[in-house]
């Protein structure tokens, strides 16, 4: 769920549908920008930076704390393989080599809305939040459908996806500079779980401004208009109007500490 879920909810259906078009354009702009950033820094995501020679590869490449990092990876992988993933597989070494051609996928979650006689499940996407993943046979959407029974399970591909998600999370846990880099670009980083995917850790990167989900009544009507059980959050314009520039704020503090004002 996006962090703007508590934003003012006083929108009508017409306003939400109009905001959807604006949100799509903003999302496309931010996604292009984020992809450019990720392509530029892709070499920084080499797993050997934290796992050293425990990762397949020619030559030797030491990494400080590699043995401890491997232990943590094993523990995270074991937790992630529990229910509902139900994968009975040990993490062996050396860990398979992983390409750094990073992929990003829109973040999604299920939202249940009470109706007269039941509860309707709506798949909600956060268009300004993306999961960052190493490439694998499954996209995030396909992996979700496999786990929830929409596709036939392939244990090898499931294990591959889970392992790579765990490695990505470990990268951000161990290399604080990665998170700081994106925050300097005004994108925020968070490691989170998806309720229907158990303990698989996902690294998400969010745009500098949030989207939000309006009231359940609006979501029900809007998802019905779209002809399915899906809804896309809309841009929070109020937050954009109040945005501050973090760099300017920090420089202003320094200027004022010298007795001057901007």
Question: How would you characterize this protein structure?
Answer:
- With 262 residues, this protein is α+β, with helices and mostly antiparallel strands.
- The chain has one domain (13-236).
- The chain has nine helices and seven strands; from the N terminus they run H-H-H-E-E-H-H-H-E-E-E-H-E-E-H-H.
- Helix 3 (66-80) crosses helix 5 and helix 5 (155-174) crosses helix 6 (176-184).
- The radius of gyration is 21 Å and the shape is flat.
- The two termini are 38 Å apart.
Please name the defining characteristics of this protein.
single chain, alpha+beta, 5-stranded mixed β-sheet, two-stranded antiparallel sheet, 9 helices, 17% strand
Structural class, please? alpha+beta
Number of domains: 1
N to C succession of SSEs: HHHEEHHHEEEHEEHH
Task: Please indicate the percent range of residues in DSSP E strands (runs of 2 or more).
Answer: 15-25%
Portion of residues within helices = 40-55%
Cα(first) to Cα(last) distance is 38 Å
Radius of gyration: 21 Å
How many beta-strand segments?
Answer: 7
Number of helices: 9
Q: What is the overall shape?
A: flat
Task: Describe the largest sheet.
Answer: 5 strands, mixed
Q: Which stretches are low in confidence, meaning pLDDT under 50 for 5 or more residues running?
A: 1-8
Mean pLDDT metric: 90
């Amino acid at each position: 769920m996006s962090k703007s879920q508590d934003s003012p909810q006083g929108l009508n259906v017409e306003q939400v549908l109009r905001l959807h078009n604006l949100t799509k354009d903003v999302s496309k702009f931010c996604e292009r920008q984020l992809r450019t950033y990720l392509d530029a820094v892709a070499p920084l995501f080499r797993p050997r930076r934290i796992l050293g020679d425990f990762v397949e590869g020619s030559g030797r490449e030491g990494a400080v704390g590699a043995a401890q990092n491997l232990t943590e990876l094993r523990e995270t992988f074991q937790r992630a393989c529990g229910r509902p993933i139900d994968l009975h597989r040990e993490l062996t070494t050396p860990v398979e080599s992983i390409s750094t051609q990073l992929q990003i996928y829109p973040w999604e979650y299920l939202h249940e809305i009470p109706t007269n006689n039941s509860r309707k499940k709506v798949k909600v996407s956060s268009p300004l939040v993306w999961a960052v993943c190493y490439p694998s046979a499954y996209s995030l959407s396909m992996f979700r459908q496999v786990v929830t029974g929409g596709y036939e399970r392939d244990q090898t591909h499931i294990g591959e996806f889970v392992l790579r998600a765990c490695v990505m999370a470990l990268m951000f846990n161990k290399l604080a500079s990665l998170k700081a880099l994106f925050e300097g670009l005004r994108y925020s980083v968070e490691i989170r779980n998806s309720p229907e995917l158990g303990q698989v850790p996902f690294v998400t990167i969010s745009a500098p401004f949030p989207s939000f989900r309006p009231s359940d009544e609006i979501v029900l009507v809007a998802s019905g208009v779209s002809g399915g059980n899906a809804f896309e959050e809309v841009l929070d314009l109020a937050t954009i109007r109040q945005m501050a520039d973090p760099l300017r704020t920090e420089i202003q503090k320094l200027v004022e500490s010298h007795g001057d004002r901007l």
